[in-house]
Amino acid sequence: MNWFKKTLADVAGTQEPEYGPSAIQPVTKQAETKPYTEVKSEHLKWRAMESTCVETQGFYFMTDEGVTCMAQLIYSNVMGVKTTCQFNTKIYDHDGPGKHQWCSDPLSNHGFDEPGTGFYADNVSVLLSEDGTTYTIKSAVNEDNICNLTVKKTAPGFMAGEDGTTFYGTDAKNPWGSMWHKFWPRVTVSGTMQTKKKTYNVTGRAVFIHALQGMKPHHAAASWNFVDFQGPTYSAVMMEYTTPPSYGKTVVNVGCIAKNGEILYAGCSNSVKHLAATIDPVSEWPEPKALLCNWNGKSVEAEMMADLANRTDRVDVLAHVPTIIKNLIGGVVGTKPIIFQYDPKEKMTLKIKENGNEISETGKLFCEATFIS
């Protein structure tokens, strides 16, 4: 029966059998002996798998003028049958509170540069500099948001453990799926996003994440939390996901505390808790109203409590992703992917304890809570 369920899940995307926690080798295990590895240029090559996958490069910007925006590349493949690429941008509160500028465009004639770290398509390019410190993002694929951006890391990149990867499968030597995230946690951005109504000066701080889900996304994770704090001195990021019951509801959390020139802590000894939530009447998911985040390194610890009383946006994922991904998960019983996004206008406080010294810093927060199944 499990073989039948697994075969059906691979083809139709239905729920997998409950293999239990032994069918996952989380990156948290790697981090017990090696908390993190510094990300170099060679780690940022596009995998562009020819089997089922969703690979993304995401940039989240916090401008000095107080505007939050993002740019994202999506490479997706379903069972080696069809590959699509998409370029997404978003400017929060473009026309006032709650009115966001969202653009999502399919790309044609995509390819990769010779090192494999750069992506290009008609009217879009996202290229890494030869020295591995800077991305240039150029897009004229949509007149509603023409992008010309330069993103430069100011602290080392990192991935958890040895290779940043969680493997899925009952045979650890021959996994059938994978998941990884690679981060630039502290980054500067300059340039512009030009809409038909306004040209934004996108100068400020950012975070960059290169991620791969080497399997059907709703099989890899049932829920997510993403936290990005950027202050004058410190950056704190956290990415957490919980697997479906198929893999024992395993929690995988990767996080980092950084400042210019150095990573103070990176690894998997982190936690994020929803302190309060209300049932969203539209999606019926528990919408978070307050968060408690902890980063727990050996010599550096940090804590942040965030009031999320006012949601910035509620995103119906299936309304915004390429058709090929909709076909991956659309119609699967119990699957309704929703992202609650928060861009608080008030500053948040990060409390840091470094080598016994306690420091508090206020900064900008962006966070997401995603529910899938």
TrEMBL record:
It is found in: Cytoplasm. Residues 54-213 form the Svf1-like N-terminal domain. Gene3D superfamilies: AttH-like domain. InterPro entries: AttH-like_dom_sf, Ceramide-binding_SVF1, Svf1-like_C, Svf1-like_N. Residues 215-373 form the Svf1-like C-terminal domain. It comes from the Eukaryota. Keywords: Cytoplasm. Its main location: cytoplasm. It holds the Pfam family Svf1_C. Belongs to the SVF1 family. This is Cell survival pathways protein. It comes from Lithohypha guttulata. The lineage of its organism: Eukaryota, Fungi, Dikarya, Ascomycota, Pezizomycotina. The gene is SVF1.
